[in-house]
Amino acid sequence: MLILHALSGDAHAAGSGGWWSDLIGPYKGIDTNKYFVVCSNVLGGCKGSTGPSSANPQTGKPYGIDFPIISIGDMVNAQNQLIDHLGIEKLLSVIGGSMGGMQVLQWMVSYPNKIRSAIPIATTMKHTPQQIAFNEVGRQAIMADPDWRNGNYYDHAPPARGLAIARMIGHITYMSDTSMAQKFGRKTRPNKEPKKFGAEFEVESYLRYRGDNFIKRFDANSYLYITKAIDNFNLLNGNKNLASIFRGLNAKVLVIAFKSDWLYPTYQSQEIVKACKLAGIDAAFCEANSTYGHDAFLLETEQEAYLIKHFLNTVSNGHNGDSQ
């Protein structure tokens, strides 16, 4: 099966420090004693696959913004080449949340004959103006940083402040009002900074920490390219209607949403289910209780493990001899 990561994720999905290590492993929801699990870095990223920080073979220098605009479809096409290279004829399942869920949906459209099941989690078939707006503010924060240098910063200091602010903006959307209230309330901290506008509240300190930590592991140009790919993703393009999007797919689908997720609210997951049903696909839906907001797809692993484990059992039990 293929695991598909979100915006800031990478191929390190399981094991020590893995972003889904509570879900993937021996005897876990995605049981590695039973299933062979593959996860790769997305095209355009900065953790292995080619991206704007990679060397341009024509110049020997990093691409920067000479790197071409990429799409979720491009990411999935690259993954398909990897699966072919590994000699896998059919995947038992493709699974992912957020941007990973978009990749799942793209697999359902682009390679319907190569998957037996799909589990898109906390995702959407297209971004709303509000979702695009949050990403655009993050991109503008990066490009407004004087250290961005029109994307040619690799021989200089990176646009750290811009990227940190972009991450802070993003992280606000990943949480919920309830989770922020539970985690921080209006708790304050000793202001050790000499500035009048230091991090007085715990939530301010937390967001600054998240932003400062992010710049140590992510490339600003990759952030620009990947968020643009997310915004451009739209399975409803052209003359497609809901009934035609997944027509021809012969796979079982489990769609999972979370009640407190306001970045990718439940109605967007329900639209995916509706499109599946109209195409005659065996699709199940679950809206899980959680106060974590969008981050629930990374944190509510016990609920997800239960749902995914039982769903995969139904898919495995219906195995018809195709290669997994």
How would you characterize the overall build of this protein?
With 324 residues, the chain is α/β, with parallel strands linked by helices. The chain folds into 2 domains: 2-127 and 235-317, Alpha/Beta hydrolase fold, catalytic domain (Rossmann fold), CATH 3.40.50; 131-230, Orthogonal Bundle (Rna Polymerase Sigma Factor, Chain: A), CATH 1.10.1740. Helix content is 40%, strand content 10%. The chain contains 11 helices and 8 strands. The chain has helices at 72-85, 99-110, 129-144, 160-174, 177-183, 202-214, 220-232, 242-245, 266-278, 296-299, 301-317; strands at residues 2-4, 24-25, 30-31, 38-39, 94-97, 117-121, 252-258, 283-288. The strands form 2 sheets. It has a 6-stranded parallel β-sheet with strand order 4-1-5-6-7-8, sandwiched between helices.
- What is the level-2 CATH architecture name of the largest domain? 3-Layer(aba) Sandwich
What's the CATH class of the largest domain, please?
Answer: Alpha Beta
Reading side by side through the largest sheet, how are the strands ordered? Answer: 4-1-5-6-7-8
The ordered string of helix (H) and strand (E) elements is EEEEHEHEHHHHHHEHEHH
| Number of beta strands | 8
Number of helices: 11
How many distinct folded domains? 2
The best one-word shape is globular
Kindly estimate the percentage of residues that lie in beta strands according to DSSP. Answer: 5-15%
CA-atom Rg in angstroms: 20 Å
CATH superfamily of the largest domain: Alpha/Beta hydrolase fold, catalytic domain
Helix share bin: 25-40%
At the third CATH level, what is the topology name of the largest domain?
Rossmann fold
Class inferred from helices and paired strands? alpha/beta
Largest sheet report: 6 strands, parallel
Query: On the 0-100 scale, what is the average pLDDT?
Result: 95
Distance between the termini: 7 Å
| Low-confidence region ranges | 320-324
